[in-house]
Amino acid sequence: MTSESRPHTPAPALLPGPVLLLGAPGVGKGTQAQFLMADFGIPQISTGDTLRDNIARGTDLGKAAKGLMDQGQLVPDDLVNDMVKARLSQSDVERGYILDGYPRTLGQAEWLDAHLVSAAVETLPLVAINIRVDEQELLRRITGRRICPVCKTIYNIYSKPPKKEGVCDNDGTPLQHRSDDTEEAFTERMKAYNSLTAPVIEHYSHQGRFREVDGARSVEEVTASIESALRELRQAGE
User: Fold this and answer.
1) How many domains would you assign to the chain?
2) Which residues are catalytic, by number?
3) Residue 126 falls within a domain, yes or no?
4) pLDDT band at residue 6, thresholds of 50, 70 and 90?
């Protein structure tokens, strides 16, 4: 669902601090991060964006990462952590920020905890909010997704089909089905998520700064639940 489908309703004044959005592939973390950015005026930080930015700017970290990627290797945790550390030193994170897709592993989570505790600029602890959606619903969301290559509108053949099958309502362009939006690809992504990222959720669930929200509801309701959970967590920490 696109952001145009949700009217902008600014959140009441709140210093959000660092917020970690968790959840399996397809739960809507990216969509919700966009709404939280608009409501709170804080940046979204994703490792994918940070990695691409470092490579584009030709930083030492970017050059090291690109060298590994060109060899078909994964970028190791310590390099990713250093990129995140550099990003968190920028001035736009003073009121808070939204972490999306990081930490992806338990090792990254433990590094982040230690870094935030030692960072003199941090006054609020990290809070984690997990968006929970049934795996069968996630499968429908991902395999049913269709995208207009021109206007970038996202449809779903199960929950938000176009008026005419296979073409965009806005411009009549044939819709595209991404090659990784298949059941096989989803199964592999879930395997990686369960082995690497699920332990991150368990890690934060034991720290008292954690909430879960029902991601199967409407986009607006999920946003309201996240902002309510964030408010509760911050008030509890006062």
Assistant:
1) 1
2) 29, 104, 145, 178, 189
3) yes
4) low
